[in-house]
Design a protein that fits this description.
Shape: elongated
Order of helices and strands: EHEEEEEEEEHEEEEEEEEEEE
Structural class: mainly beta
Number of helices: 2
Strand content: 35-45%
Oligomer: single chain
Low-confidence stretches: none
Number of strands: 20
Length: 250
């Protein structure tokens, strides 16, 4: 089975342009911090940074050193601190002068499935990712088996790493260097046959307006390979690797 993308996913990948998610202007409260060998950071004495979200791109404009202006991946967010990759800032600056911060999100798979979730089902997948689910649900995959509520970011999984035209798991917001832990506690017995990745809203059933990705599960040669596809109630299922390919040819 080839990977199946819902109509919404394909439409957004073809035509969704990046949009501004958040914009902040500060006359004096924002500082840019060169973290040396650690992550660089943006701090705000007014604690106004919680409007930004990990995984989005943040643009800095108006820095004292123009080399520090640019767009960077947000690794983590708190009201007073945003962490970005080490080496982003050349000099940094203390909180004193006006600066503008803006974040954006587009239509890539990474952006569409920010803080998403996955469900694993028995049997064969439906004929389209727009169709209602088939088979029985075995387990829901989140960050480290944490509780997930549709519409909330907590414990949502993310894509991020790209290699050889394949999209893999995102990196942990805690350090920006290790893969997220995708796992869940099984709620039923059965043999894993296929998975569906839902966007943050977690809308189930038939839909042509929600992003979904369907793929096959097997012991080898599938989008998700498991050493043992037999799942037992109460067991922890961990997804060690996922490969979402962008085919060279149809």
């Amino acid at each position: 089975m080839a990977l199946r993308l819902s109509t919404k996913v394909r439409n957004d990948m073809l035509g969704y342009k990046a949009r501004c998610n958040a914009l902040l202007y500060s006359a004096s409260g924002i500082a840019l911090v060169d973290g040396g060998v650690g992550n660089d950071s943006i701090t705000d004495t007014g604690s106004g940074l919680a409007i930004f979200e990990p995984g989005d791109m943040i643009t800095v404009e108006g820095a004292d050193d123009s080399d520090d202006d640019g767009s960077y991946v947000i690794l983590s967010v708190a009201a007073g601190t945003i962490e970005i990759p080490t080496g982003s800032f050349t000099t940094g600056q203390a909180a004193a002068n006006p600066i503008i911060l803006g974040s954006a999100r587009g239509g890539s798979l990474v952006d569409q499935f920010r803080n998403a979730t996955m469900k694993i089902y028995t049997g064969s997948p439906p004929s389209s990712a727009d169709s209602a689910e088939s088979g029985s649900e075995l387990v829901q995959i989140t960050i480290s088996s944490g509780s997930f509520t549709g519409g909330a970011d907590t414990n949502g999984i993310n894509f991020g790493q790209v290699s050889a035209a394949e999209l893999g798991k995102g990196l942990s917001c805690a350090d920006g260097s290790t893969e997220e832990v995708w796992s869940g506690v099984a709620g039923a017995d059965g043999t894993a046959g296929w998975f569906r990745i839902y966007d943050n809203d977690l809308t189930t059933g038939a839909s042509t307006v929600k992003p979904r990705i369907d793929g096959r599960i097997a012991t080898s040669g599938a989008q998700i390979n498991m050493a043992n596809t037999s799942i037992e109630t109460g067991s922890t299922v961990t997804i060690d690797g996922v490969e979402i390919p962008m085919a060279e040819e149809a």
